[in-house]
Design brief:
InterPro entries: Calcineurin-like_PHP_lpxH, Metallo-depent_PP-like, Phosphodiesterase_MJ0936/Vps29. This is Phosphoesterase. The protein has 189 residues and is an alpha/beta fold. The chain has helices spanning 20-28, 41-50, 64-69, 95-102, and strands spanning 2-6, 31-34, 54-56, 73-78, 81-86, 108-110, 118-121, 127-130, 144-151, 154-162, 182-184. Strand 4 and strand 5 (81-86) form a beta hairpin. The radius of gyration is 15 Å and the shape is globular.
Length: 189
């Protein structure tokens, strides 16, 4: 099962549209997980129209319309892997310990808010993933998102993708094929 992880799209505050590369990934993914700060309900509608399945939460910049449609915390099992999704996890220091205590029934926690890509494992075995932001890199060198596979109770092929800044954003995916390059992240066994 191919999963796209995205967060902090911030359309139309930080970007005019979701980048085409992200929409192409959404179209070929089995599931899109969005960790909040959509900002515009049209972005949720776009992902739902462009994807087979969307699992999402609201973030601190999401208004009443998004909060009415999305939970603060989402839980889903994909390929035998138990995912929890939340926007904010607090400061980086102590994050693994706090999140392991808060989400003891999850194998993977997907979060956003910082716009900083993150991939660590808590002592409990909980994997923490933040895909960064495809539209607002803040102090990071690249706009980013992640993909992974989930099957037989394990995740694999976790890749942090850097977006090509020269690519123009579009309103819908142009094709279902993707030839982009990702950077494979290191992760513990």
């Amino acid at each position: 099962m191919r999963v796209l992880l995205v967060s902090d799209t911030h359309v139309a505050r930080r970007a005019k549209a979701v980048p085409e590369q992200v929409l192409v990934e959404a179209a070929i993914a089995d599931v899109v997980i969005h960790a909040g700060d959509w900002v515009d309900v049209d972005v949720l509608d776009l992902f739902e129209a462009s994807s087979r399945r969307v699992v999402g939460v609201y973030g601190n910049n999401d208004g009443a319309d998004l909060r009415a449609r999305l939970p603060e915390v989402a839980r889903v099992e994909l390929g035998g892997v138990r995912f929890a999704v939340v926007h904010e996890t607090g400061p980086a220091e102590g994050r693994e310990r706090r999140c392991a205590a808060r989400y003891p029934d999850a194998d993977v926690l997907v979060f956003g808010h910082s716009h900083i890509p993150w991939d660590t494992v808590a002592d409990s075995g909980l994997r923490l993933l933040n895909p960064g932001s495809p539209t607002d890199r803040r102090r990071q060198p690249h706009h980013t998102y992640m993909t992974l596979t989930a099957e037989a109770g394990r995740i694999g092929d976790v890749v942090l993708h850097h977006l090509d800044r020269r690519a123009a954003p579009v309103a819908a995916p142009a094709s279902r094929s993707y030839g982009g390059k990702g950077i494979r992240m290191r992760f513990p066994p």
